[in-house]
Design a protein that fits this description.
The protein folds into 2 domains: 1-152, no CATH class; 155-295, no CATH class. 74% of the residues lie in helices and 0% in strands. The protein has 12 helices and no strands. The protein has helices spanning 3-27, 34-55, 65-88, 91-94, 99-120, 126-144, 146-151, 156-181, 196-221, 228-255, 271-275, 281-291. It is globular and about 60 Å long. The chain starts with a helix and ends with a helix.
């Protein structure tokens, strides 16, 4: 068995194990939304840890990992309470939950990083260490934990499913389009081997996937999602966002001179390698839904 076949088998087996768990957390309404919180915690905190490891330069230029992970945990809890607090009665324990709670947590987090820098680290590398710690939480955890907010929307599971379907089809189309038809390099320094043919194949798969999945859910699940024109436009936007997330991860990995963000998922690499394309899609798709009046 050659290396390509072995790697393919690892990818398939990883998907067979992980996808049902991921899908269960998305579709279930059991256990007061705890499954989606657990999945968000695992995805966002493991991705954050991988980012911190990539950004590690030396003992002076490194993240405050424990503080960052603790802050990431609290961000997920905050998202959960905001999404499900009123529904399940948690609001009586936390009072009125508004933007001031979030801003308060951010202030405490930044203050903790600065205090730790003053008392535990030398002056050398201070700006770098503080910056990557805060950026990691805001970029990785804040973005990915929007899956919790999306789950709480009316028909939220359908929006999460359709988003994941489109992003996976975009990635699949880009891969096979690049392998089969790739002739013209896109010229991005972060991914020099990617071709325009691959990107446009992914775009086509994304548009068609969005339109077909949207119609399937409307026809067989009796839910109102998007018009066909809106679905096509969203397919384009999500393809661009997914590719942007992939390129951002490639930028960070090339700066860190590594191939994969980790090895936690056999055949796929790290958690960030799997969810890089969703890191912009989750928050921006959620706020689009909010702007259109979906609650």
């Amino acid at each position: 068995m050659n290396e390509i076949t072995r790697n393919t088998l690892k990818r398939v087996m990883s998907a067979v194990v992980a996808l049902p768990v991921y899908a269960f957390a998305i579709v279930t309404d059991m256990f007061q939304g705890i499954p989606i919180l657990i999945v968000s915690l695992i995805i966002s905190l493991v991705t954050l840890y991988e980012y911190y490891q990539i950004a590690h330069r030396d003992e002076n230029h490194r993240a405050f990992v424990e503080i960052g992970l603790a802050a990431g945990f609290l961000v997920n809890i905050m998202m959960y309470l905001f999404a499900f607090g009123k529904l399940y009665g948690y609001s009586r324990f936390i009072g009125t939950f508004d933007a001031r709670v979030a801003m308060g947590l951010v202030s405490v987090f930044i203050s903790a990083v600065m205090v730790w820098q003053i008392f535990k680290r030398p002056l050398s590398g201070a700006a770098y260490s503080m910056a990557i710690t805060v950026f990691g939480v805001m970029f990785v955890v804040f973005s990915l934990s929007h899956i919790i907010l999306m789950k709480s929307l009316n028909n939220g599971m359908y929006y999460i499913l359709i988003l994941n379907i489109v992003v996976m089809l975009n990635d699949t189309g880009a891969y096979f389009g690049g392998v089969l038809f790739g002739r013209h390099k896109a010229g991005f320094q972060a991914s020099p081997n990617k071709s325009w043919e691959g990107y446009f194949s992914g775009l086509l798969f994304s548009i068609l996937g969005m339109m077909v999945a949207n119609q399937v859910f409307i026809s067989f699940c009796d839910v109102e999602l998007f018009s066909m024109i809106e679905a096509a436009i969203l397919g384009i936007v999500l393809s661009v966002l997914a590719n942007t997330g992939d390129l951002i991860e490639s930028v960070v990995k090339r700066d860190g001179e590594i191939k994969d963000s980790g090895s936690i998922i056999p055949g796929h690499g790290g958690m960030w390698d799997v969810f890089d394309a969703l890191i912009f899609c989750y928050p921006l798709f959620y706020y689009y839904l909010m702007a259109t009046g979906i609650r």
